Amino acid sequence: MKLLKKRFSRDDAGKFLPAYYDKKIYEEDPFKTLDQKGVGKLIKMAVELGKKERPDITLGVCGETGGDPKSIEFYNNVGLDYVSCSPFRVPVARLAAAQAAIKAKKN
Questions:
Q1: Which domain holds residue 91?
Q2: For residues 9 and 12, what is the distance between their CA atoms, to the nearest angstrom?
Q3: Among 1-10, 12-21, 24-33, 52-61, which stretch is predicted with the lowest mean pLDDT?
Q4: What CA–CA distance (Å, rounded) separates 29 from 68?
Q5: Is residue 47 part of a domain?
Q6: Half-sphere exposure of residue 55, counting CA atoms within 13 Å on the CB side?
Q7: Is 6 a domain residue?
Q8: Domain for residue 18, yes or no?
Q9: What is residue 3's DSSP assignment?
Q10: Given a cut of 60, is residue 91 above it in pLDDT?
Q11: What is the mean pLDDT of the chain?
């Protein structure tokens, strides 16, 4: 089996993301908004299994998705304890986290 040695990062995303959008592979920038169906499923599994093994474990996420309102709501719903993001996204992240907590209490 031949392994591909290519990787991509948010620094070079502008080179390939437009083609991914055109082909409907991604609807939004995966470096800013969490892919809830794919990566989100893995995060949900990790939270469930981690908290089952160690109920006192503290789990969170760091990165730009930590400042995205849709991603924050997802993180809250799966049981993450915190999010971390770049300073300019903190006000939006705080508001989104509060809204997600209120919405979760209503359900």
A1: 35-106
A2: 6
A3: 1-10
A4: 11
A5: yes
A6: 0
A7: no
A8: no
A9: P
A10: yes
A11: 89
